[in-house]
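stage 2 :: seqdesign
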């Protein structure tokens, strides 16, 4: 906001800027906040400079060529006199006339430091300048507490101790200033400024680029960049209290009891002890706080483990690398990352061990892609190999500001007097891992929560369960009922006094104001009935959930021994939601797959070979075609003796030569293949396993070893793979001088380019169908011999295309098309993308349980479909609805056409189960827009499975949020990479896999597991148990309170609506917190309505949770009505029994407390009997909780009744014990009345079990009597049917699963693996 005053325009900054500090941006002058007027030559003055805490001796650095400047730091509305500037002693009053500033006055500046000897006497620095008013008072206060001036030495640029870079006396924790960088923060280091306490860790100007100085830590530190600390905790020291209280008091029950406890403090209003409610509420909040703190400490421990990881950081003074923790990495640090290590921050690549500054990084943790990415340092820095050379490097980087875009970057490197543009090719992101590269060196540009990875993440959300929301709504309903009961009782009191005033004169209430009495009665009855809502409910729920989470963590069936990874429940608040999940959103790479490729089988010359022949799959001839497998030993025999030995030789030669893999010979003589594609690496390793070992790559040739003999092939051309061509080819001059074209690619594109007479096509096709049916990734191999003349003509066309400036890629594709024809088919390969153990079975069981599984991956469509087939998400008989469009209108038309087609036909459940939607990232971006999202979601939910390909981390979260927003369903997201964090946090329940991609997902998730297969037991067993147990525990908690406290309401009709309690107040409190404390815990923790084996054997039982069978509004009020019914029976019976049988021994008459104890005991026993009826399993804990609680009351009551009155507590019980326990009415009541109450419950349970059983009742019967499951076994028949459908589908559409990064030819021609690595590990 700005306003004009005279010739000056004042700029008032927002509060954010006031708290943000005075740190200038990289392109601003140091210290000055003066803006030059644009129109009338006036000076713009920020009112942040009008600071009562600022130092008037603070000299701003203002450019000397600015003829239109003002000395802004001396503006102080609290000063009586201003400082002298250039001898001008005019008072600078921003609220006075315009003569306070000479617009044409030039103010000199100094480059010598904050204080200039030309303006200020040095000895004046030892004491504050004289001033009065608020500022003078503040200075006196500052001096009193030791924050005053301490005689700063100019010669040392305010550094008082050379050994300590920070001034411990002045309390300025900013780094010391160097000769040309004294005042980067726009103020004196000797000035105390309270605003520093609130200062953010980023620059004031968020629009200017970021400047990072190379090997100048002081300059970088002065910019106060964000540190590299990562936190996924829910709370910190300052936010715990407000966030915790907000979360707790978002539960209406806690708000209700807080209000009740406040009312209890009003004198003469409360019919009970004033501390009963507030004390119990404090205990409830304390227990919840302890649970929240313990869970957050676990998150903090995980964060500390990650922040303490080590990395090599360059010490410029020593000229060598030292190992530091990730948390200590700062912007501007030069770090060295070695092979297989993770990148700790976003860095600009400076040099690598590979030729021309190349390196390979795996970004599956970021975008889900399994292919390695190629990064390259700029040539201006790629020669800096040693740590000494790197330490001598000077310059700076002007970088874009932190943002969330993973695929873009803009910056400029200033080094050696040159400006070098930087692009995403030089940016290595936090979360990526170095692969196939010895080392890289780079400079840190973004750290911590400013990295692109963390910018794509969101803060740990506070998640509330669906059950909690239902409870809140029912508490509101009970609150309304309480008000109604209070109004009825208050009206009754007023009417009673009005009608019976003649007989109630002894109360002396004739002159009482009836309106005032009514409202006082409202408060009284509010307190009396307040326990209709159980105050112990939420602490009971918290403890039950905590132990359920503990049981999940202790389950050895979900412990992954190879990596010593147990299942971890990082939060216990969501255990019940595990039993109600309807959608599972899963990542692919690292979650469903291991990210490992394995060469499994091959078809060569019409024969199929595999390492280990499956059972019943021995080779046999069917319809003239050989089916089944031979082993690899037979392959070696056929390579030497069979009629197809030359075909086998060419097949294996093609595998070992037609690729872009780079061999690296290790010290032990073994070879590691560095491949940008896991598929290519698996194929080359397969060839090596079969005796054709690729071991040398030079820029223009390769060498392979066959049976110990080395063969050299001259590499003439490479026609690279791309998603359009779906193949790659290489042209070689073979050792015998012939020129051959080797091609590998998808069967559909290879078959189209075969010559007419290919004898192995039909057999290879059958083998491909078998491979695809097994979920293997297939590839066809073919060759062609090329004459010298044909090659010469073609090569000329190819070279012209390769240097074309227009449509180069299209021309290269056209050139490749000219030579890739008349091919001779050699065979096919089968690679297994290794799934995690049990993935297909887990997905199948989840789908059978009614859970829809959506896979969201960053991989290509072909790869994703193939893996989805392997893991049984998609089956061969499914109809794939593919949406893969380039424009929004085309996407809309595609989705609408599919919807119209589906709506025009009435689909059966079988038809729906055969639908699967496949959509790519570009189309998904359009589909998620507001005008298309409804149609997209309608189509998606009609399908049994959904597969989203090439999606970004943000799109994953948006898909989850769309379903969460539009569907009344509970969602679970599971992943293992940092790119899955936003999706995990967006879902109702997030599950992280502690996998190969790091721990970021596991740290950010609600639950962490070691393998995807554990999701089956986590949901179907622990989820079902937790939901059913917690449902009963909550319903029972409400029931027992309604049973007792409604008796208070019935009693008002017999006590003239006086508000008298029928039970002593501390006894009422102990009803929940002592005598009925254990049953809800035992039911909620140990009860098993069905065993784990049965829950896994019958996944359909999981649908009970999805439908809210055990806890919903209808069931809640059924339990509440049952409580009302039981309370009415109990009260009517007790009152009538003591009405006619109130005579006690010795001629005494039972008073209200005898009646109250009897009623209390009957309610207690009835509630315990109800707990016994609903318990499905009796254990030692059940015996302690139910019979034990009643015995505890029988023993505790006489002890309490004897001791408490003698210490002035519960005086109502004085001498009552012998009258209660000596009364026959008491013992007959506690035996007969509970039986009468529970008779209806027993008969209803008997009827449901025997005449109207539900599905889980039948399973309980099977479990109880150990009935054998005699359902017919159709597995063999179903397998045959599936096979027929798979073959039919493969004939309609066969795909491939081979991918390779583009631009590989230029890279592989840079390598000569015959050269040795240099002193620093670089490849010369």
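stage 2 :: out
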């Amino acid at each position: 906001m700005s306003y004009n005053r005279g010739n000056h325009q004042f700029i008032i900054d927002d509060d954010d800027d006031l708290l943000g500090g005075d740190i200038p941006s990289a392109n601003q002058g140091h210290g000055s906040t003066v803006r030059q007027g644009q129109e009338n030559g006036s000076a713009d003055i920020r009112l942040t400079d009008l600071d009562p805490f600022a130092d008037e001796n603070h000299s701003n650095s203002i450019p000397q060529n600015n003829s239109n400047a003002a000395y802004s730091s001396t503006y102080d509305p609290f000063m009586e006199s201003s400082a002298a500037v250039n001898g001008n002693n005019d008072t600078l009053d921003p609220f006075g006339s315009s003569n306070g500033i000479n617009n044409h006055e030039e103010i000199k500046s100094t480059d010598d430091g904050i204080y200039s000897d030309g303006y200020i006497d040095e000895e004046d620095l030892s004491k504050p300048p004289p001033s009065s008013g608020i500022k003078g008072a503040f200075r006196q206060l500052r001096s009193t507490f030791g924050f005053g001036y301490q005689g700063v030495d100019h010669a040392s640029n305010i550094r008082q101790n050379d050994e300590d870079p920070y001034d411990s006396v002045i309390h300025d924790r900013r780094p010391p200033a160097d000769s040309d960088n004294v005042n980067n923060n726009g103020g004196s280091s000797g000035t105390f400024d309270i605003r520093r306490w609130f200062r953010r860790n980023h620059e004031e100007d968020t629009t200017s680029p970021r400047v990072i100085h190379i090997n100048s830590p002081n300059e970088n530190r002065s910019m106060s960049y964000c540190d590299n600390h990562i936190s996924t905790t829910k709370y910190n020291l300052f936010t715990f209290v407000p966030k915790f209280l907000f979360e707790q008091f978002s539960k209406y029950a806690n708000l209700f009891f807080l209000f009740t406890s406040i009312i209890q403090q009003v004198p003469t209003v409360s019919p009970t002890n004033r501390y009963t409610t507030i004390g119990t509420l404090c205990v409830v909040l304390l227990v919840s706080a302890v649970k929240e703190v313990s869970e957050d400490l676990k998150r903090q421990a995980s964060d500390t483990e990650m922040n303490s990881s080590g990395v090599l950081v360059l010490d410029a003074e020593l000229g060598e690398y030292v190992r530091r923790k990730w948390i200590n990495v700062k912007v501007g640090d030069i770090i060295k990352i070695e092979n297989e290590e993770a990148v700790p921050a976003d860095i600009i690549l400076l040099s690598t061990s590979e030729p021309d500054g190349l390196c390979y990084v795996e970004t599956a943790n970021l975008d889900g892609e399994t292919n390695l990415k190629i990064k390259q340092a700029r040539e201006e820095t790629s020669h800096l190999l040693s740590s000494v050379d790197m330490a001598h490097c000077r310059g700076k980087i002007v970088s874009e500001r932190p943002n969330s875009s993973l695929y873009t970057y803009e910056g400029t490197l200033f080094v050696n007097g040159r400006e070098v543009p930087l692009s995403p090719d030089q940016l290595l992101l936090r979360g990526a891992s170095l692969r196939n590269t010895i080392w890289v060196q780079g400079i840190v540009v973004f750290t911590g929560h400013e990295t692109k990875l963390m910018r794509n993440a969101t803060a740990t959300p506070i998640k509330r369960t669906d059950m909690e929301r239902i409870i809140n709504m029912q508490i509101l309903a009970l609150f309304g009922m309480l008000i109604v009961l209070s109004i009825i009782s208050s009206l009754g009191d007023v009417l009673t006094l009005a009608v019976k005033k003649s007989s109630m004169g002894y109360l002396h209430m004739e002159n009482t104001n009836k309106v005032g009495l009514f409202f006082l009665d409202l408060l009284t009855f509010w307190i009396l009935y307040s326990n209709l809502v159980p105050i112990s409910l939420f602490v009971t729920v918290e403890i039950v959930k905590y132990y359920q989470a503990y049981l999940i963590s202790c389950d050895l069936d979900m412990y992954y021994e190879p990596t010593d990874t147990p299942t971890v429940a990082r939060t216990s608040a969501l255990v019940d939601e595990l039993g109600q999940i309807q959608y599972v959103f899963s990542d692919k790479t690292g979650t469903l797959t291991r990210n490992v490729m394995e060469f499994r089988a091959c078809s060569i010359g019409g024969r199929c070979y595999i390492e280990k022949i499956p059972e019943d799959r021995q080779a046999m001839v069917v319809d003239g075609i050989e089916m089944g497998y031979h082993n690899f030993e037979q392959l070696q025999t056929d390579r030497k003796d069979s009629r197809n030995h030359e075909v086998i030789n060419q097949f294996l030669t093609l595998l070992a030569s037609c690729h872009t893999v780079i061999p690296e010979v290790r010290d032990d003589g073994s070879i590691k293949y560095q491949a940008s594609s896991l598929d290519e690496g698996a194929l080359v390793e397969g060839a090596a396993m079969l005796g054709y070992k690729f071991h040398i790559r030079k820029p223009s040739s390769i060498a392979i070893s066959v049976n110990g003999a080395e063969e050299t092939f001259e590499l003439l051309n490479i026609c690279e793979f791309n998603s359009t061509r779906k193949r790659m080819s290489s042209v070689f001059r073979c050792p015998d001088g012939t020129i051959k074209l080797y091609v590998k690619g998808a069967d559909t594109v290879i078959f189209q380019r075969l010559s007419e007479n290919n004898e192995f096509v039909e057999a290879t096709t059958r083998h491909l169908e078998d491979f695809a049916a097994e979920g293997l990734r297939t590839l066809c191999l073919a060759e062609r011999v090329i004459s010298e003349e044909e090659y010469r003509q073609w090569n000329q066309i190819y070279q012209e295309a390769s240097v074309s400036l227009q449509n180069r890629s299209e021309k290269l594709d056209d050139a490749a098309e000219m030579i890739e024809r008349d091919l001779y088919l050699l065979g096919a390969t089968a690679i297994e993308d290794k799934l995690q153990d049990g993935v297909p079975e887990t997905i199948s069981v989840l789908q059978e349980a009614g859970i829809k599984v959506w896979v969201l991956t960053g991989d290509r469509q072909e790869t994703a479909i193939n893996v989805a087939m392997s893991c049984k998400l998609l089956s061969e008989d499914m109809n794939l609805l593919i949406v893969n469009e380039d424009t929004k209108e085309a996407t809309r038309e595609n989705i609408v056409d599919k919807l119209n087609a589906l709506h025009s036909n009435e689909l059966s459940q079988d038809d729906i189960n055969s639908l699967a939607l496949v959509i790519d990232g570009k189309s998904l971006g359009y589909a998620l827009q507001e005008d298309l999202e409804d149609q997209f979601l309608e189509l998606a939910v009609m399908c049994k499975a959904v597969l989203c390909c090439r999606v970004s981390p943000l799109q994953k979260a948006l898909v989850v949020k769309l379903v969460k927003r539009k569907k009344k369903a509970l969602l679970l997201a599971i992943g293992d990479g940092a790119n899955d964090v936003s999706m995990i946090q967006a879902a109702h329940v997030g599950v992280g896999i502690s996998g190969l991609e790091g721990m970021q997902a596991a740290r950010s998730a609600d639950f962490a597991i070691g393998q995807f297969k554990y999701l089956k037991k986590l949901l179907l067993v622990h989820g079902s148990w937790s939901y059913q147990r917690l449902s009963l525990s909550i319903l029972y908690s409400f029931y027992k309170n309604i049973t007792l406290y409604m008796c208070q309401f019935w009693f008002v009709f017999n006590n003239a609506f006086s508000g008298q309690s029928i039970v002593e107040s501390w006894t009422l409190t102990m009803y929940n917190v002592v005598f009925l404390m254990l049953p809800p815990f035992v039911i909620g923790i140990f009860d098993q309505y069905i065993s784990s084996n049965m829950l896994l054997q019958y996944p359909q039982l999981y649908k009970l949770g999805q439908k809210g069978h055990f806890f919903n509004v209808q069931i809640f009020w059924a339990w509440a009505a049952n409580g009302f019914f039981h309370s009415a029976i109990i009260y009517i019976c007790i009152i009538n029994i003591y009405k006619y049988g109130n005579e006690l021994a010795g001629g005494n008459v039972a008073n209200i407390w005898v009646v109250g104890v009897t009623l209390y005991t009957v309610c207690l026993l009835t509630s315990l009997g109800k707990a016994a009826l609903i318990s499905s399993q009796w254990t030692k804990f059940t015996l302690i909780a139910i019979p034990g609680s009643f015995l505890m009351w029988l023993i505790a009551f006489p002890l309490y009744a004897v001791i408490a009155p003698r210490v002035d507590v519960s005086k109502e019980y004085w001498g009552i014990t012998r009258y209660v326990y000596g009364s026959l009415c008491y013992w007959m009541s506690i035996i007969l009345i509970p039986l009468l109450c529970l008779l209806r419950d027993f008969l209803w349970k008997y009827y449901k079990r025997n005449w109207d059983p539900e599905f889980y009742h039948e399973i309980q019967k099977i479990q109880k009597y150990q009935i054998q499951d005699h359902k017919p076994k159709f597995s063999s028949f179903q397998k045959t049917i599936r096979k027929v459908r798979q073959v039919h589908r493969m004939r309609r559409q066969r795909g491939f699963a081979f991918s390779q990064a583009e631009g590989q030819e230029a890279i592989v021609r840079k390598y000569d693996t015959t050269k040795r690595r240099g002193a620093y590990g670089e490849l010369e």
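stage 3 :: structure notes
- The radius of gyration is 40 Å.
- The chain is about 40% helix and 15% strand.
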